[in-house]
């Protein structure tokens, strides 16, 4: 997530990190713990709870320092080498699947009769960084209200929403009766496959054709054409 903050800063990363280190650090920490911040906010739990473990903060701060201040940008450039980037991306997607199922399970304990809450919390745990991107940009002094996940949801948010729905159906034995481990493995494989497809084959959004067809049939596309 820290590398994504660096990517978003683009060519101004070095100048910004040196002139505004506090803003740079805060935005990076927000992205690192965005899933917990957002899930806790939705569930009415302490938003600051992700900061209760000082070792997590120290580790995240160390990585932030290496990404932004390592000599010759060595760490950042190393992370962008395709094999290294692919391995890191696979690890991130495996972790994302774990966060989604953990969010669904936690919400199910608090709201066992509300499937929509379980789906929303699972999505927040998996795609919190993308959803809070507007807040992170605001910390850096950038205000882009037209670029948010509600208006232009990324593939990660769509995939997390789908994964959350699958986990909710599986957990409540609705339409899905397969073992949890098998469902979990399928979700991990789905996330990893499309992430590698995006990196190696430049596949941007595999949901787009389905969305276009759905909108044409059910959202008035056909009638507008007539």
Automatic annotation (TrEMBL):
Pfam families: TRIC. It comes from Trichostrongylus colubriformis. The chain crosses the membrane at residues 25-44, 56-72, 182-201. Belongs to the TMEM38 family. One of its GO terms (cellular component) is endomembrane system. It is a multi-pass membrane protein. InterPro entries: TRIC_channel (IPR007866). GO terms for molecular function: identical protein binding; potassium channel activity. This is Trimeric intracellular cation channel type B-A. Keywords: Ion channel, Ion transport, Membrane, Potassium, Potassium channel, Potassium transport, Transmembrane, Transmembrane helix, Transport. The keyword Membrane applies. It is found in: Endomembrane system.
């Amino acid at each position: 997530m820290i590398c994504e903050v660096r990517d978003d800063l683009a060519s101004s990363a070095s100048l910004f990190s040196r002139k505004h280190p506090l803003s740079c650090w805060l935005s990076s920490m927000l992205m690192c713990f965005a899933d917990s911040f957002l899930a806790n906010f939705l569930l009415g739990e302490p938003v600051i709870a992700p900061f209760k473990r000082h070792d997590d903060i120290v580790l995240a701060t160390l990585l932030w320092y290496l990404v932004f201040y390592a000599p010759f940008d060595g760490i950042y450039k190393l992370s962008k080498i395709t094999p290294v980037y692919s391995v890191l991306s696979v690890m991130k997607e495996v972790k994302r699947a774990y966060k989604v199922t953990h969010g669904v399970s936690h919400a199910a304990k608090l709201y066992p009769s509300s499937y929509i809450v379980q789906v929303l919390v699972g999505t927040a745990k998996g795609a919190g960084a993308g959803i809070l991107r507007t807040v992170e940009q605001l910390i850096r002094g950038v205000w882009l209200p037209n670029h948010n996940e509600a208006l232009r949801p990324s593939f990660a948010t769509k995939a997390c929403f789908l994964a959350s729905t699958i986990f909710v159906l599986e957990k409540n034995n609705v339409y899905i009766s397969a073992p949890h481990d098998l469902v979990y493995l399928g979700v991990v494989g789905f996330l990893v496959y499309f992430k590698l497809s995006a990196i190696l084959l430049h596949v941007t959004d595999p949901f787009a054709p389905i969305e276009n067809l759905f909108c044409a049939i059910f959202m008035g596309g056909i009638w507008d054409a007539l």
